[in-house]
Structure formats: structure tokens, C-alpha cells
Design goal:
This protein has 143 residues and is an all-alpha fold. The protein has six helices and no strands.
């Protein structure tokens, strides 16, 4: 009723190449989804496993024996958990605000076209962002 006068196009048959593309896309998306989901499932499984079973057999997606002892110990003293969350939130907020402030200060200076060392400082920021100072890689090359 609402679409009077609109011509409907006939559906084109889907070609073989499009079907292969869709199948490959679904397989790749499924593999990436599993790669993101499996670590969380492994942590969850490890949190409800017996400690001695993990020490003997290592981590597995299906625990041999389910135990909630870790959660009992975690919630035994709730003040420690709340303090840990407080420290985490404080460090996150402080680090974010400090990083934002320092980045804004640097951007303000670099936006000034009269700043004599503008290109050198910009190159320094660019170079250190591309080639990070990974101490473990540096330690391996020094040996």
C-alpha cells in the first residue's frame, strides 16, 4: 500500500564467487571470534578449577573438578577487593588525565607555526611512536 508505484527489482542469483567469499568471510570471522573468546573462557575455567589440578595438568577449558574456593577467598575480606578496585580506578583516571594534559600541551606548542624546532619535535614524537623502546628486545640484542 505504501509503496505504490515503486517497481520491484527481481533478485539476481548469487554467483559462485560470492558464495565462496561469504563462506571464507564467515570462517575467518568465526576464527577471530574464537581467538577473542577463548582467553576469557580459559580464565573463567581456571577460576573455578581446583588449584592442585591446575598445578598437575595445567589450564584447560573444561575443569576436572569445579571448586569455588578462589571466589570464597576473594570475597572473604571485601575491603581488599574494594581497595584494589579503588587503586585501579585512581591509576586509570590519573594516567588518562595526565596523558591528555601532556598531549594537549605538546599539541598546543606544535600548532604554533613560529616554534623554531617544530619539525624536529614532531619527528621525535613520530619516531618514538613507530619504534617503541621495548626493553626486552633491547636486552636480547645486547647479549
Amino acid at each position: 500500500m505504501f509503496m505504490a508505484g515503486v517497481k520491484h527489482q527481481s533478485k539476481k542469483p548469487i554467483g559462485r564467487d560470492r558464495i565462496v567469499f561469504n563462506i571464507l568471510s564467515y570462517v575467518i570471522l568465526g576464527a577471530l571470534s574464537l581467538a577473542c573468546l577463548l582467553p576469557f573462557l580459559l580464565v573463567l575455567s581456571g577460576s573455578v578449577s581446583e588449584q592442585y589440578a591446575i598445578q598437575l595438568h595445567g589450564y584447560s577449558l573444561l575443569p576436572e573438578k569445579i571448586s569455588f574456593d578462589a571466589y570464597k577467598m576473594l570475597f572473604r575480606i571485601p575491603e581488599e577487593l574494594l581497595r584494589a578496585y579503588g587503586v585501579t580506578i585512581f591509576v586509570t583516571v590519573t594516567g588518562t588525565l595526565l596523558g591528555l594534559w601532556l598531549t594537549s600541551m605538546a599539541a598546543y606548542v606544535l600548532a604554533n607555526r613560529d616554534f623554531r624546532y617544530r619539525y624536529q619535535v614532531s619527528f621525535f614524537f613520530y619516531f618514538t611512536s613507530v619504534f617503541g623502546a621495548d626493553k626486552s628486545a633491547f636486552a636480547e640484542t645486547v647479549r
